[in-house]
Structure prediction request, 147 residues.
Amino acid sequence: MILKIRPAMPEDVPGLFAVRTSVTENAMTYEEMQALGITEATVCSMIEASECAWVATENQHVVGFSMILPEDGCLFAAFVLPHYEGQGLGKKLVHAAEQALFRDNPLIWLETGKNTRAAGFYRRLGWKHAQDVGEGDIRLEKSRQEQ
Prediction:
């Protein structure tokens, strides 16, 4: 098994959506994402416009990804196929996203479910200062000095 982390390319977008719709926590369907304006076309445009996503691949198949909103200083997404959890891919993908965000932002943030495995994962990676943002979600932050 050869796993690789690299910047995402437009041709990876179907793989990102396959991962996103396969997770067990915070699951979303294509239709739910489309209703939020998250389509393969919009994600492809984002990737073409800036370095904003990274993929974990095995034999050129996307098995995980992270994505940022650089202009907002936000870690937007980090997901790994269930079969690949616990192998350090999520940590590596989040680290790649953090490094890109810290180039232009002294403070970065994300939102996640308050009582989720993801919240614990991010806290173990040094994300702090939980603020309730409603509907069971929290905002976590990380500063350049805390990395």
